[in-house]
Structure formats: C-alpha cells, structure tokens
Amino acid sequence: MALTADSTIGEILKARSDAKDIISKHAGQAVDESMLSMAMGMTIKQVAGFVNWGPDKIEAILKDLNED
To answer: I want to staple 40 with a disulfide (CB 3.0 to 4.6 A). Which of 2, 10, 12, 24 is the partner?
Structure first.
C-alpha cells in the first residue's frame, strides 16, 4: 500500500523502519521520539501545516517513503 499525504505518522512508522530517518532528512534536523509521539495520529498534510512544508516538500517526502 502506498503512503499518501493522508497517511498518519503512526502508519508511516509502521510501514517503514527507516521512516524516522527519511522525515529527519526532509525536516533538515533530527526528529526525536517526543516529536514523533506527539504527531502519531496526524497525517503528513497536518504536520506540513504546522512546520510550513509546501506541496513540493510533501511530494519529496512521499517519494522517498514509497521507494523500495
């Protein structure tokens, strides 16, 4: 199943063992467990609204998350 902008952080972390690293790469900083735990029920779209990621950033993150 492909991850989308409507996938929650929790779903993404379950789907990809390296999701934290991918998110950190695109965030430009290390993402720690407390940040992730606060966002577990949030979708990528919702997180993007809080951290000011535009459509291009969301697309890049999803591209990396959906690569084999």
So the answer is: 10
Q: What is the pLDDT of residues 9-39, one digit of tens each?
A: 999 999 999 999 999 999 999 998 898 899 9
Q: How many domains does the chain have?
A: 1
SS3 of 17, please? Answer: coil
Beta bridge partners of 8: 43
Cβ neighbourhood burial of 47 (10 Å; 0-12, 13-18, 19+): buried
* 3-state class percentages of the chain: helix first, strand second, coil last, to nearest 5: 65, 5, 35
Does any domain span residue 3? no
Per residue in 49-66, pLDDT (tens digit) is 999 999 999 999 999 999
